[in-house]
């Protein structure tokens, strides 16, 4: 997956938005005003930070060398995924979906209703 594919997939999520609140190098994806993914545009290789259930986060780190505790994030709830050939695109999409769903579930009821969730 490259940056364009990552961006397109994140923005395909209902009501997802993108912004650059941390500067020109960091692309942030939000739903309901809360971050569900962020990526550094100048990182080599490409990485993405994703919210994750704490138990699953540990499991993924143990299973995949390319999954690490969230860089500059709460390491209990966030993973940094190095997007390389060791990560299948289908797995990455599943992890993006999981991150998005966790954020949507954390939104107030009125915000979830606006999203149709």
UniProtKB/TrEMBL annotation:
<dbReference type="GO" id="GO:0003677">
    <property type="term" value="F:DNA binding"/>
</dbReference>
<dbReference type="InterPro" id="IPR058532">
    <property type="entry name" value="YjbR/MT2646/Rv2570-like"/>
</dbReference>
<dbReference type="InterPro" id="IPR007351">
    <property type="entry name" value="YjbR"/>
</dbReference>
<protein>
    <submittedName>
        <fullName>Putative DNA-binding protein (MmcQ/YjbR family)</fullName>
    </submittedName>
</protein>
<dbReference type="InterPro" id="IPR038056">
    <property type="entry name" value="YjbR-like_sf"/>
</dbReference>
<dbReference type="Pfam" id="PF04237">
    <property type="entry name" value="YjbR"/>
</dbReference>
<keyword id="KW-0238">DNA-binding</keyword>
């Amino acid at each position: 997956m490259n940056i364009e594919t990552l961006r397109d997939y994140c923005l395909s999520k209902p009501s997802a938005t993108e912004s650059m609140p941390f500067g020109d190098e960091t692309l942030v994806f939000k739903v309901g005003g809360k971050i569900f993914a962020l990526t550094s545009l100048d990182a080599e290789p490409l990485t993405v930070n994703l919210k994750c259930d704490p138990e699953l986060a540990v499991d993924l780190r143990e299973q995949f060398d390319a999954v690490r505790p969230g860089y500059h994030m709460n390491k209990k709830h966030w993973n940094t995924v190095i997007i390389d050939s060791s990560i299948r695109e289908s797995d990455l999409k599943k992890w993006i979906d999981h991150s998005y769903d966790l954020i949507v579930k954390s939104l107030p009821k009125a915000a979830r209703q606006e999203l149709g969730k």
